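Quick question about two entries, pasted in order.
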Amino acid sequence: MKQAYLSRLVSINEKIPLPNPVAEQPPSFSSLVDGFRAEKLMPEETPEISEGQKALERAAAREQARNQTAKRVSTKIPDSRSRYDSSMVASLSSSSQSGAEVLSAIGGIASVVVPGAEIRNSPMEPYNARKKAYESSTRQFSRSPDENVAIAEAKFTDFDIATGVRDYDKTISIANDNKKDVRRCFDRVYRSDPTVKGNLVVKFNIHPEGYVIPESIRMVQSDIQDVHILNCIKRTIRRWRNFPRVPYEMGEYSITQKYVF
């Protein structure tokens, strides 16, 4: 059965006629304009220009350019031109305006921009305003010349500067000589009471300027019970100012003395 089917297909294909080859014909072109034929375009012939003529043309072009430049420079801006007002400048400088509004404002008025007062949004602006106001108020006084003002001549004070080092032997000698002042405090009580006696150890510091520092006086040891004698001794030592002066670099000098009455 399969063989019969294949034989039937072959017989059908053999009956179909084969296409006859047709010779290729050259394409035909028709023009909308009768009598048109394609022709070869020939280059246009331009007259030759000599070098001298070219130089003359260049010189004429330069002269024309110079004249136009001079004319532009000498042209004055007419006074009737419109100008931007301060509100328009503020509108353009504001950050709240959109790009379309700014472009329309620029395109709508074509003229020279004369900006108004500068607008600042700085936190230092109040301080700067007060500073400028203060400077303007004091400028007239600071810049005015001095009139009828007597200015004293400068003087130099030559201070007595202490030099050298501390002479410890001299300091101890002066402290021993000052003991006679302390003795007077005890003699006042001794006149009324001959049985009074005792000993006292006192410590004090001497300032580089040569006086006893009052706050440094200390009663280290004492068997004298009379308060009047102790207070008199403190007042006496506080008044000692006859020690030699030394430089401040030497510092204070501490002395401890013992008094036996």
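Here is the second entry:
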Amino acid sequence: MSLRSKVITLYKNLLHLGKDWPTGYDFFRHRLHKAFTKNKDVNDPEEIKKLIKHGEFVQKEIEALYMLKKYRTLKRRYNIGNNSPQQIRKPYKA
């Protein structure tokens, strides 16, 4: 896979992740575009590979952030206060 196609794939993946960004898709898209255009004149293949690795790191961090957000939401939804579901259940009386 050429470096150009890797950069385009990374941009598309990050753009897709931006749909759930807390401050909005437009804000994320603008910042992403600005970050990529800042490095548009880089021609050294080693520097491009370094930037791609950094972009992949950012992508993994965003994915981890979303997973943590979902986990916290589920935890909040199913744990009332500090009580676990086992503590909430009342004993069964026949």
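Reply: Helices lie at 3-17, 25-38, 45-78, 85-88. The chain has a mean pLDDT of 87. Hope that helps.
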